[in-house]
Specification:
336 residues, alpha+beta, SH3 type barrels, Fumarylacetoacetate hydrolase, domain 2, 2 domains, twelve-stranded mixed beta sheet, five-stranded mixed beta sheet, 8 helices, 19% helix
Amino acid sequence: MKLVTYSEPRKQSRTRPGLLWGNWILDLQDIPTLASKLAVKAPKRISKLANLSSTLDLVASGAKMLDDLQSLSWRIFNRLDPARLPRTLKNLDETRLHPPIPRPPLLRDFYAFEEHVKAARARRGLQIPQEWYDFPAFYYSNPGKVYGPEDEVPRPSYSKALDYELEVACVLGKTGIDVSEDEAESFIAGYSIMNDWSARDVQEKEMKIGLGPAKAKDFATSLGPWIVTPDELQDKRASGGRFDLTMRARVNGKQLSNGNMRTIHWTFPQMIARASQSVELHAGEVFGSGTVGTGSILELGPEVHHWLNPGDVVELEIERLGTLRNRIIESSNSKS
């Protein structure tokens, strides 16, 4: 399944949770009534969909709800005729997509691709520290500044070295503490694309202090265009919780980055196990993978492409997960 958060601009509607089917969106709240009209037998828990107001509510409903929804949705879509039910289905082209989880309860970003770590540190004349191989490291980003597909992202007024980062993200669907690596995969409700926007000139100075990035990162994270549930990716499974998914990034139509999720060193189950040690995780939390190899201008070097400027369009594309596109604009606080 593909889970979306959408609105209908022409109707000035609030954001709603839905299922994406081709070029059509089915609102979650319409599903119980629609199943009844189509004479599709639905499990009792499906009736609760009528009271869900967000995708976060859905993933927090648990794996059994998602499993029932997956089974039911296939039967509904196989009986639907979009031409005869225009009020039930929304055309994707006539809606606006928002971040699938507009305000995550918590946003962690990891540092899991060895190629990126090696290349980025080499730019500063550094090697990978041995501690990186001991456990998956992460920092906390800002869940209050999450952008969706096609949103305009302001370049922070205090930076002249804006960069993108091509990442996979997972969204948790369960609550738990001290989760073992073996059970951690069951905590994943789905996957999405993440862009961890970075102010490299600010980051360079912050990292010298030794506390980690802060103002270099907290101004923007992009997420979307939807959440893809794990069942959609099983034929692309590689080793140890990895997936064989091509990852690409383009700026103004020119491809700069080309990587693959299967090269990740620390897997999402390992990240979840690490983060949950003596800490309770909650449904809806987002885990970013960190940048795939070649997935940033920092690695490629400004000689390959200049730092991002207002007007630049950045597209992150991951096989099976879609394309996350944003345009950079000038910050309203920028000095003329």
